Structure formats: C-alpha cells, structure tokens
Amino acid sequence: MVNRNLKRLYTFLIFSFLYAPIIILIIYSFNDSKFRGDWSGFTLRWYVELFRDREVIRVLYYTFAIAITSSIISTVLGTVAAIGIHGMRGFTKKSILNLNYLPVLNPDIVTAVALMALFRMARLQFGFITLLLAHITFSVPYVVLSILPKLRQMNVHLAEAAMDLGATPMYALRKVVIPEIMPGIITGGLLAFTLSIDDFVISFFTTGHGISNLSIYIYSMARKGINPTINALSTLMFISLVALLLIINNRSEKSKKIIQERR
Amino acid sequence: MKLNRIGYPYFIWLGIFILIPLLLVMYFAFTTGDSQNLSTFTFSMENFEKFMSPIYMGVLYRSVKLAFVSTLICLVLGYPIALIISKEKPKVRNIMVLMFVIPMWMNFLLRTYAWLTLLGKNGILSRVLSFIGFEGISLLYNDTAVLLGMVYNFLPFMVLPIFSVLTKMDNDLVEAAEDLGANKAEVFWKVIFPLSLPGVITGITMVFIPAVSTFVISGLLGGNKSTLIGNLIEQQFRYTGDWHFGSTMSIILMVFILAAMALTSKFDKEKEGGGGGLW
C-alpha cells in the first residue's frame, strides 16, 4: 500500500512540475498588475491589448501561411521521394537514407547556419521565400520517415497485380499505392505542420526583412522582459491546443465505436 | 515498374539543401576573410586555434557539462514515471501519455518563458523562499536556472521512448524471472532495465542533442552569465558577423554530437527496429 501511494505521489509531483508553470502563466494573464506576484484584480485587458496589436495579427498570418504552404509542399515532395526510395536498392538507397537522416540528427542550430550560408551564397533575399525553403527542408525528411514504414508493410504484389490487370504505373500508383500508405502521408503532413508552427531556431536564422513567425516574435518579446500580453497569448494557445486534442480524441473514439458496432 | 526513378529529384533536393550547405559551413570553418566576399577567402586553421583558447574551451566544457547533467536528471526522473505509466491500465495509460504530450505541443519558447516569470525577481518561487527566510536569493540568470529549463523542456523526450519500449516488453519474461526466485531489485536490474536499454539510449540522444546545442534556454534563463556554445554560434552569425568562426564552432559541435552518439550506440545492441524510435 505504501508503495502504491508513493507511486501516486511521484506521478503527481512530475505532472505538477510539467503543468505548474503553464497554470501560473494562465492565472497571471488575468492579473491586473503588470508585476508578478501582486494580484490586483481580475482583468481582460491583456487580451484586448493582444488583439489590438497589429504586429501579433501579422505574425500569426505569417506563421500559418508558412506552416500550411510548407507542410503541403513537403508532404507532396516527401511522398514522391518515399515511393522512389522504396524502389531503390543498395548503395543509392543507403546514401539517400543517410542524407535524409542528417537534418533529423543534426542539431537545429547547425542546420540553421548551414541554410543561412547557402541562402547568402545564392544571393537570395532573406524573407518569406528563404523561410519557406528552410521549413520545407527540415520537414521533408520527417515526412519520408513516416511514409517509408507504411511502404514496407504494403504487400509488394498489390501494385504488380494492378498492372497485370491492365493499370498503367501511374494509375496503379494513384489507385493502389497511395491509398495503402495514406495513414503515413497524413501523419507526415501533420508532423510537418506542427514542426513548422513550433520551429524557432531555423526560422530565426533564415528569415529577414521583418518577416517573423510566432516563435521569433515571442523570443524578441521575452528578451525585453516579462510582458503580460505574452501570458494572454500562451493562454489562448494552450486552450485551443487542449480543445483540439479533445476533439480529435473524441472523434477517434467515436469512429472506434462505429467500427466496433459494424462488426 | 521503374518507380525508383521518381526518387532521384529528391536526391538533387537533398544535395542542394542538405549536403551543399554543410559543405559550405565546412568551407567557412577552414577559411578566413571577409564573410561577405568569397574572393577574400584564404585557407587557414586560425579559427580552430582561436577556439583552443581557455575562454572558448571553457564555454564548450560548460555546455557539455550542463547537457550531461540535464540528461542524467531527465533519466533519473523520467525512468520511474515511464515505468509507472507503462504498468497502468490502457485507458489511464493513454490519458497519462497525452498529458505528457500536451506541454510538448505548446510552443517551446512559451514553456521557457513560463519559467522566466516563475523564477523572476517578483516571481512566486522567490517569494516563497523569502517567506521561509531565504531573502534575496537570485533564482534567475544562473546555471541552475538553465538546467531547470533544460529538464523541463526535454523530460518528455526521455519519458516517451522509454515508455514505448516498456509497453512493448514481453511481460512473461518478468513473470518467469519472478517464478525462478528473483526478487524485485533483481527483476528490475537483470530483466526490465536491460530490455529497456534501446529506449533509454533513444531518450539520452533526444535530450542530449538539443540540450548541448541550445541557445534559447541559456539566452532567456541564463542571461549574459550563462553563455553556451549555442549562444556563441548565434552571436557570430547574427551579430558579430564572423561566419568563419561561427562555422568552426558549428563543426566542432557537430563532431562532438556525432562522437557522443557513436559512444551511446555502442551500448545499443539491437540497432534498428528494436529501439524506441524517434517517434
């Protein structure tokens, strides 16, 4: 019994450690005082200030524009690449897989300065385009890695059977291979999207001309010191995140139930 | 079917955006000159010599030390919780894993910023401390704060791979050991822990790499006193403009990490497929 309680206590402590900072941040986003620790009444003024700030709206726009565009492009590129890699053999396959692994294993900061050097040498103007290219670059390997296992699981004879029955290779690809690996493609796309939304280090080095995403904006604000509007922003992000996860969870449970009932 | 041909454009893409940039960094590292003008570049080892000075070696030592300590803390704190979660019923287990994932989905900078407000001058923690009688202790802008930030941010990276290996583990092995008379400690050290090593190793690499190369955590929580190698690289590329020296440090960091990974993978007998996997 003592052991069991000890386990409970430990679990509780770890989760408190994980959540306490977030909860305190949320509480202080409603605090009227600008200084921490002094509770001087409930207010929504930080939220009002947040939405009045045109910079925030602009930053949110860029964050989502980059995330959506880069995740779509990297999903398409990654899918095509994964199918190609799956068909390769020997040295070619090994070297392309190792190259694909490099940005996954390399620390972000190395990838970031390397891309910065490339863009400078190519005389590209730092801004939206370089940011987009950088995000595609670090997302595609993850897309490839989430699709390859699905290709390995796929029955090798499926595509061949389709072609024996008269399908052209493109038709077989569209009607047989792609539907088979769809779960992997979706996982890869979502991964690319979240990686892009969350990225700071690589964006920080590859952007310019006033284009910043959410992470860069938070960094520049946090360096100036504590700012209650950041608390308001985190609260909104946290709540929307939890809501999103609950919806996904609910839906997947519902679909599970439907599948069970059909059986 | 010649489907493998459609993979070749990706080869070119990887060449342009992965390989050439790294080669460029290497080229920068071994040359000096005006960073903006290729024609002024001359080959030299000057940057490496510069790095050998006590100041920079001290920074490298500090970065590795902090990363190592935070990895160790994550392992010590994370292993028990991974074990506890893996023994729960599937329903409770899923909720607990989700609870570990939720903070990870929150923006990395916001998570670090949260500690800035907790540890700050008027923050809750320093108020509690001064209430107990420890007046005027500065919690922010030192190595402990950086360490705390690292553990907070990277703990899930340690817990999740260990957890995923533990849940896949064949429970019959544990029962067999118990039937054969092993006590709890023996079961853990001789059966459970060795079987979970692939997850432990994945966890270690996933904590150590971001910890050793971070500049955000040290930049926000460590102030000017806690400069890590990541901060030095950031300064060279963003402010000082000496890309050559910055590249040299990036290469050194990369070599360090590759060496650390080679070292840890030596302990990992089952290499691919058996591990916790990155995801």
Secondary structure: elements and pairs:
The complex is a heterodimer of chains A (263) and B (279).
Chain A: H1 2-28, H2 45-52, H3 54-87, H4 90-105, H5 108-121, H6 128-153, H7 157-164, H8 169-180, H9 182-198, H10 201-206, H11 214-223, H12 228-262
Chain B: H1 8-29, E1 31-32, E2 42-43, H2 46-51, H3 54-86, H4 90-105, H5 108-119, H6 124-132, H7 143-168, H8 171-179, H9 184-213, H10 216-221, H11 229-240, H12 243-267
Antiparallel strand pairs in B: 1-2
Give an overview of the whole structure:
Chain A is an all-alpha fold and 263 residues long. Chain A has a domain at 60-226: MetI-like (MetI-like fold). In chain A, 81% of the residues lie in helices and 0% in strands. Chain A contains twelve helices and no strands. Chain A has helices spanning 2-28, 45-52, 54-87, 90-105, 108-121, 128-153, 157-164, 169-180, 182-198, 201-206, 214-223, 228-262. In chain A, helix 3 runs parallel beside helix 6. The two termini of chain A are 41 Å apart. In chain B, helix 3 packs parallel to helix 7 and helix 3 (54-86) crosses helix 9 (184-213). Chain B is mainly α. Chain B is 74% helix and 1% strand. Mean pLDDT of chain B is 83; it is low at 270-279. Chain B has a two-stranded antiparallel sheet with strand order 1-2. Chain B is globular and about 75 Å long. Chain B folds into two domains: 1-44, no CATH class; 52-267, MetI-like fold (Orthogonal Bundle), CATH 1.10.3720. The chains are: A mainly alpha (263), B mainly alpha (279). The interface between A and B is large, with 86 and 83 residues.
